[in-house]
Amino acid sequence: RSQPLVLGIESSCDETGVGIVRGTTLLTNTVSSSMDEHVRFGGVIPEIASRAHLDAFVPTLRQALADADVTLEEVDALAVTSGPGLAGALMVGVCAAKALAVATGKPLYAINHLVAHVGVGLLDGNPDGGAAGGTAGRSASLAGGLGHEGRLPENLGALLVSGGHTEILKINSITSDVRLLGSTIDDAAGEAYDKVARILGLGYPGGPAIDKLARTGNTKAIRFPRGLSQPKYMGTAEEPGKHRYDWSFSGLKTAVARCVEQFEARGEDVPVADIAAAFQEAVVDVITSKAVLACREHGIKDVLLGGGVAANSRLRELTGQRCASAGIRLHVPPLDLCTDNGAMVAALGAQLVMAGIGPSGIRFAPDSSMP
Ligand code: KG4
Ligand code: ZN
User: Fold this and answer.
1) Which ligand is closest in space to the CA of residue 83?
2) Which reactions is this enzyme annotated as catalysing (predicted)?
């Protein structure tokens, strides 16, 4: 089949994203974030996010079309995140996409946001490293063998870690068979970073602040709990416990709060850097150990790391080390493709078109808790 030109729309949280791909080639990834408006509240406020999407959608669409040098008429298909995410925020992107579909007569695909985080790995690598490639570089990550002639490796897993999700997935077929092996049973990892940063007085979003401060702290000064790691939850490879591959971060957050209270009650200075370092070590240790365990026990040989917490220096380091020891290849897309964006939605939409799967029509509803 020829390479379809697909326009993808993302609005599940605070990013308004419009991405355009031709098959597996990225033409543009245009993103407008409302994060600045949420900072003073210490978290994403759904109503503000929805209103920001309304304001940002048309300018972001225009910018994306201009950057890719294409017209709406040339587009072969539209794709939009239909869940999971914030209901009101999803509604804006879904309504915009339906309006475009009706106005242009183009087919529309409803996309699962989490699967799209993996679909981004199919985009071709840029031999020059990519403009916004960050430390990983587009060539080192994507052209490193993940997307090959439009196909994903056979035994592929994805570790998604952000403010909204912490999941390990097994991808048997990107268009039809994606399985959840494990996930957080309470807070997402990024959410834990944000809550702990608030406890430590570091501001919002907390991930980058803790990452930076942790470098000056002693990871062994305090030992924080690794959630769901006890034998009763883990079981064995033969008889897996109920939460063998799952995570829990709310107990860790409480442990940090208790620890701070104890220093304060004794009238001592709170060792903020040590707490940040020990907290980060607990999060990253349990994420990587369980993810690698799930991969080993499911024959996964390639893992894609995605989500905003993929920016974390210690997570990158320890995931890299533990995957290498287990003989698993780790793929880290450039950060602008790891965080929420429209290109990943377009990339998965293009896969559906190329697989000959029919569009969703315009009668679907956004589903904030889509599995
Ligand atoms: O993917 P993302 O931009 O948005 C969603 O949550 O979907 O992820 C944002 C999350 C926030 O919780 C933020 O604190 C966290 O990613 N984050 C980090 C780092 N950079 C961003 N967490 C740890 N270390 C970082 N360097
Ligand atoms: Zn996301």
Assistant:
1) 2
2) L-threonylcarbamoyladenylate + adenosine(37) in tRNA = N(6)-L-threonylcarbamoyladenosine(37) in tRNA + AMP + H(+)
**Domains recognised in the chain with CATH numbers:** 5-134+336-354 (3.30.420.40), 179-332 (3.30.420.40)
Q: Among 160, 193, 204, 253, which is best to mutate for testing ligand 1, by the most ligand atoms less than 8 A from CB?
A: 193
Strand 166-173 with 177-183, pairing: antiparallel
Binding residues for substrate: 160-164, 194, 207, 211, 312
For residue range 222-249, what is the model confidence (pLDDT) as tens digits?
A: 999 999 999 999 999 999 999 999 999 9
| pLDDT 10s digits, 76-120 | 999 999 999 999 999 999 999 999 999 999 999 999 999 999 989
Is 28 in a helix, a strand, or coil? strand
Distance 211 CA to ligand 1 centre (A): 11
Predicted TM-score (pTM) of the model is 0.91
Question: 56, 185, 170, 81: which is closest to 118 by C-alpha?
Answer: 170
Ligand 1 site, residue 57, Cβ cutoff 6 A? no
Name the H helices within the chain.
Answer: 35-38, 46-68, 87-104, 113-119, 138-141, 189-199, 206-214, 231-234, 250-265, 272-297, 313-325, 335-338, 342-354
Residue 341 CB less than 6 A away from ligand 1: no
206 lines ligand 1 (CB under 6 A): yes
| Gap from CA of 239 to ligand 2 centroid (Å) | 32
**Are 249 and 191 spatial neighbours (Cβ–Cβ below 8 Å)?**
yes
Q: What DSSP state is assigned to residue 358? A: P
In this structure, are strands 5-10 and 77-83 parallel, antiparallel, or unpaired?
parallel
ipTM tops 0.90:
yes
Scanning the structure block, which residue is given the tokens 């896969």?
351
Rounded to an integer, what distance in angstroms lies between the CA atom of residue 69 and that of residue 288?
41
Q: Which atom of ligand 1 is nearest to the CA of 311?
A: 26
CA distance 49 to 235: 41
